[in-house]
Write a structure and sequence with these properties.
By secondary structure, the chain is mostly helical. It is built from 21 helices and three strands. β1 (122-125) and β2 (129-132) form a beta hairpin. The termini are far apart. 41% of the residues are buried. It comes from Camellia sinensis var. sinensis.
């Protein structure tokens, strides 16, 4: 936050992290920062409402936002101090405790079942599903602030929760939303970089290109400009907040470029993060804005072992900035075994309708599922690498559909699949989890409100995932986590080791 700014000169960003000096209390720290921000000479002992002579009403409002945001600032900083101590204690007292045995199956099977990452923002339980800072999805829906009473949680609320571990109130979420809007500007060179690609390029290719182009305006390199590892998290924090704020604009630009003849819709500063994203895509119905809030919230994070999250963590462990790290994560998300699966689900469901009609019977649907399986293909949207129960992200989307679009033909088909597919997969005997995952439902909801371009769906996933990945990147640097460098072996090494162990 630059000093010397007076009167109407506000910005560009209200929310910049600076840990309070040890000699300054959190409360006085907020006053000092406000004092610096105004370029004023108010003594520290003055802590009025900042409506003193010479400070106009707009500045007073800005200071109110600053004070709220500094609550998050101090929560994050204080949590960092405690977490660093916890980490040191874990390492010193329990560093040699074994977490399990590594088998050849694990090495050859994509490291599944192998515990090897620290990921603070969320934890995935095989039976219960995801927990964000120990809160389940239903708990998040109940506790996090919404845009309207009884509505879906605001993604900004989950961002606050992931960063601080604390549930924010509505005033805090609104202040964070305002801060993100202040950072939501995209330089012209980003659009030029995207425009250099053919319009026919996959939306994820264009999106990742845009993120790489955003990196030009990153914060300073912590390694070269500040030798203290204790401070690496600060530029990471700055870049992460800016990246999260910029992504919906880039994503919407890609959508409008490909599907709407390049007719771009500017952001609306009266809207929240999810509502604004829907607006910039071209969807202004209240229900679609609610869906986008829900979609972004439930797709933010799914612990650290999935491809996109792990990729972002791995690249950032080399002290690559959040732009480079998240661009790498997006390229992992674009794979058909990860984020691209959500487009495959809707395409498969539409193929069922094309062949069998919307009024397909249960027996016809069973036949079609067996036909898919017998052809060597999978039924997209069912099964999960970790979960062994119905994905709670699927269930909350189902509840949304029952509330807002119970008569939609594709939703009714999805409901039939929920009844038909799990028993068939169980009978097949090759699937550990026959239950639907998050991808089994999201496409049908988006399609209902007019976002029918399935090829674009993974971009929505990418915007959402930035909140979880970037929150954890901040914590990676705050905790001083090291460069990731696991050991690899050859098949010959494995064969020789197994012979010696026999």
């Amino acid at each position: 936050m630059s000093s010397g700014i007076k009167g109407e000169e506000v910005g560009p960003h209200l929310f910049h992290i600076r840990p309070p000096p040890s000699s300054l209390s959190a409360s006085n720290f907020r006053v000092k920062e406000c004092h610096n921000f105004l370029g004023n000479s108010l003594p520290l002992e003055f802590r009025p409402s900042f409506s003193a002579e010479g400070i106009n009403s707009r500045t007073t409002a800005v200071l109110g936002v600053l004070d709220i945001l500094h609550c998050c600032d101090c929560e994050l900083y204080n949590s960092k101090i405690k977490s660093v101590e916890r980490l040191k204690k874990l390492k010193s007292e329990h560093g040699k405790v074994q977490l399990g045995n590594i088998t050849v199956d694990m090495v050859l099977g994509g490291m599944r079942g192998m515990t090897g990452l620290l990921w603070e923002t969320s934890l995935l339980d095989a039976e219960e599903g995801i927990r964000f800072r120990n809160l389940s999805i239903p708990e998040c829906q109940k506790k996090l602030p919404a845009a309207k009473p009884g509505g879906e949680p605001l993604p900004e609320g989950l961002l606050w929760l992931l960063l601080t571990g604390k549930v924010p109130n509505k005033e805090q979420v609104d202040a964070l939303s305002k801060e993100l809007r202040s950072r939501a500007t995209v330089p012209d060179h980003v659009y030029k970089a995207i425009d250099a690609l053919p319009v026919s390029a996959h939306p994820m290719t264009q999106f990742a290109m845009g993120v790489m182009a955003l990196q030009v305006k990153k914060s300073q390199n912590p390694r070269t400009e500040d030798s203290s590892a204790f401070r690496y998290w600060e530029p990471t924090y700055e870049d992460s907040l800016s990246l999260i704020a910029q992504l919906p604009i880039v994503a919407a630009y890609v959508y409008r470029r490909i599907y709407k003849n390049g007719q771009v819709i500017p952001k609306d500063d009266s809207l929240d993060y999810g509502g604004n994203f829907a607006h910039m895509l071209g969807f202004d119905s209240p229900d679609m804005k609610e869906l986008m809030r829900l979609y972004v919230t439930i797709h933010t994070d799914h612990e650290g072992g999935n491809v996109s999250a792990h990729t972002g963590h791995l690249v950032a462990s080399a002290l690559s900035d959040p732009y480079l790290s998240f661009a790498a994560a997006l390229n992992g998300l674009a794979g058909p075994l990860h984020g691209l699966a959500n487009q495959e689900v809707l395409l498969w469901i539409k193929s069922v309708v094309e062949e069998c009609g919307e009024n397909i019977t249960t027996d016809q649907l069973k036949d079609y599922v067996w036909k898919t399986l017998n052809s060597g293909k999978v039924v997209p949207g069912f099964g999960h690498g970790v979960l062994r129960n119905t994905d709670p992200r699927y269930l909350c989307q189902r509840e949304f559909a029952l509330k807002h679009l119970p008569d939609d033909p594709l939703f009714q088909l999805v409901s039939k699949l929920f009844e038909v597919v799990p028993p068939i997969l169980t009978e097949l005997g090759k699937v550990k989890n026959p239950w639907p995952n998050v991808d089994a439902h999201s496409g049908v909801l988006l399609n209902h409100y007019g976002l029918t371009e399935a090829r674009y769906y993974t971009v929505l996933f990418g915007v959402s995932r930035s909140i979880g990945i970037c929150s954890q990147l901040i914590w990676d640097r705050a905790l001083g986590l090291p460069l990731e460098r696991p050991k690899s072996v050859t098949m010959e090494w494995l064969e020789n080791y197994c012979k010696k162990s026999a």
